[in-house]
Amino acid sequence: MSSVTFNGIKTLMRKEVTRIVRIWSQTLLPPAITMTLYFVIFGNLIGSRIGQMGGFDYMSFIVPGLVMMAVITSSYGNMVSSFFGAKFARHVEELLVSPMPNWAILTGYVSGSLFRGLAVGLIVTIISLFFTEIKIHNVWIIISTVVLTSIVFSLGGFINAAFAKKFDDIAIIPTFVLTPLTYLGGVFYSISLLPDFWQKVSLINPVLYMVNTFRYGFLGVSDINVAVAYGIIISFVLILGFISWYILHKGIGLRS
Amino acid sequence: MQHAIDIKNLVKTYKDGTQALKGVDLKVEAGEIFALLGPNGAGKSTLIGIISSLVNMTSGEVKAFGKDLVKNRTEVKAMIGLVPQEFNFNMFEKPIDIVANQAGYYGVPRKVALERTEKYLKQLQLWEKRNTISRGLSGGMKRRLMIARAMVNEPRILILDEPTAGVDIEIRRSMWSFVEEIAAQGTTIILTTHYLEEAEQLCKNIAIIDHGEIVRNTTIKDLLKTLDIETFIFDLDKTPDEKLLAALDARVRDDNSIEMDVPKSKNLNSVFKQIDEAGYCVSSMRNKANRLEELFVKMIENNTETKSSQPTPGGAA
Questions:
Q1: List of chain B residues whose C-beta atoms are within 8 Å of the C-beta of residue A97
Q2: How many distinct structural domains can be found in chain B?
Q3: Verdict on whether the full-model pTM lies above 0.90
């Protein structure tokens, strides 16, 4: 990588991180409040009546899922709002006229979303410590899964933002796709509770693989094969990464 | 001789079928201030958009200092600074961040980027406002901020798309000085403007674009030579009466001033003689700075007439 490209990526990363920290009350605080409510309501109040899930008390079971849910929402939300905002206000042109390669522009934006995803994940994990003890089965699986998942949803947010023409267009995917996939992705339950048919249907949900691999990193239990899950998550990174690069290369939604 | 910009047969057709550029050929000499004029919708912004990589070309060739835009896009982008017509910076960021970040996107290390940011914000009288949220800047300041941002990568070619639109006369003149200063340092400048006085003041060469075609590409001097009527303003010692106005075929400009179109064939001495004989004194006289404007309007009108007189494909015989 040339020093020119490296300086470009560093600048874009700095700009994104500064933005996220500057507006912390919109970027870091809301997931902390929402997840605290989940811990109180689902973990403490309802969870105590549910008993065990997958061999663990319900609070311990849902913590990894809720952390992952916050990471997914924050990574996607950061990219879609930041990139669409830049496109809408036309300051994305600052990057389009610059000699930064397309992959470097993508890397800069993904790094910003990754930062927000990981920061939110860390905050939610710290909050969960007030409600339960956290076991760590394999720290490398935890880190790699959360990083890859954050990248997948950052790229998804980028594609959404590139095609979006108005603010409504960036709200549709999170509401009608992301939220159902996350809620049905094994955050609150093990798919072993479902009838056979619905277990098979659940397997087409990519979030299931991410949540279960992440949970495996904490608890050492998973509804699906972890190696298969890695294969699926990495495939998503590569496919969405290529689509995003192609969008920038052709200027889809960006250049007339 | 290597040109700063060399454009051959450039065509741009938008998805809706609009042909914005119909085979434009254009050469801009290195180090000059070049004016690009044209009415709204003529294709100026499309042309600038293609040169600065914001618009994809349909066909043709664009070279900057001999480097082909398509084959050497990164190198060409590194040579160009753009000041667009509309504000396109993040209104919630501070000028210091906007300018320093732009330098970073061009690969300038942070320390150097901050030094250059200080230099250009000071040159454009924005240093005091460096930490103000940009939304709070005045229109003139926002425009100067975009110039500072375009200059921070020290481009060899600076494109200014109507840089003085909406700024007051004092700031406009200080921006002209700045443009002349950077041109003197060797930067090639391409300027689009609606203020024809601006083109006349700053530029040596000019291209007039209309309906996606270059209708004239020459020096401003040669262009003005083709103008056969000049408009003069005479300041008189008293209010002119109808008799004088009729004798001179002049118009009242204000209380003691008249405005008069004088054909080049007419001797100005005869005009002074008529005024003198009518009992008036001329206290001062000046050329109305709209010569280029008159010419521009005539040229565009002629081009429109020519186009409308041409039979349209499929039209009635």
A1: 52-54, 77, 80, 82
A2: 2
A3: no
Does residue B80 have a pLDDT over 70?
A: yes
**Gap between the Cα atoms of A7 and A1, Å rounded:** 10
| Same-domain status, B277 and B192 | no
Domain carrying residue B248: 227-291
Average model confidence (pLDDT) for chain B? 87
Instruction: Give the domain CATH number at B268.
Output: 3.30.70.1560
- What is the spatial distance between Cα A15 and Cα B229, in angstroms, rounded to a whole number? 56
With beta carbons less than 8 A apart as the criterion, state whether B150 and A97 touch: no
Instruction: Give the pLDDT band of residue B313 (cuts 50, 70, 90).
Output: very low
Residue A19 lies in a domain: yes
Nearest to A8 among B52, B105, B149 (CB): B105
Mutate to test the interface with A, among B57, B105, B157 (most CBs of A within 10 A): B105
Q: What is the mean pLDDT of chain A?
A: 93
Q: Report yes or no on B239 lying in a domain.
A: yes
Chain B CB contacts of A99 under 8 Å are: 73-75, 77-78, 105-107
Clarify whether residues B168 and B287 are in a common domain: no
| Residue B315 clears pLDDT 60, i.e. is over it | no
Q: What is the pLDDT of residue B317?
A: 34
SS3 A53: strand
Q: What is this model's ipTM?
A: 0.89
For residues B57 and B81, state if they share a domain: yes
Residue A162 distance to chain B (closest CA, Å): 15
The span from the CA of B38 to the CA of B301, in Å, is 12
Residue B185: inside a domain, yes or no?
yes
**For A193-231, how does the pLDDT look when each residue is reduced to its tens digit (9 = 90+)?**
888 898 889 999 999 999 999 999 999 988 889 999 999
Task: Output the domain CATH number for residue B52.
Answer: 3.40.50.300
Q: B84 and B15, same structural domain?
A: yes
Going by C-beta distance under 8 Å and a sequence separation of 6 or more, which residues neighbour residue A187? A62, A65, A66, A68, A69, A211
Q: Is residue B181 part of a domain?
A: yes
DSSP reduced 3-state for A65:
helix
B231 shares a domain with B216: no
Position A256 in a domain: no
Q: Which helix (H) or strand (E) holds A42?
A: none
Give the CA distances from residue B202 to residues A77, B86, B161, B259, in Å, rounded to whole numbers and listed in that order.
48, 22, 14, 26
CA B292 from chain centre, in angstroms, equals 12
Query: In the predicted model, is pLDDT for residue A107 greater than 60?
Result: yes
Distance of alpha carbon A224 from alpha carbon A145, whole angstroms: 14
Quick one: pLDDT at residue B290?
57
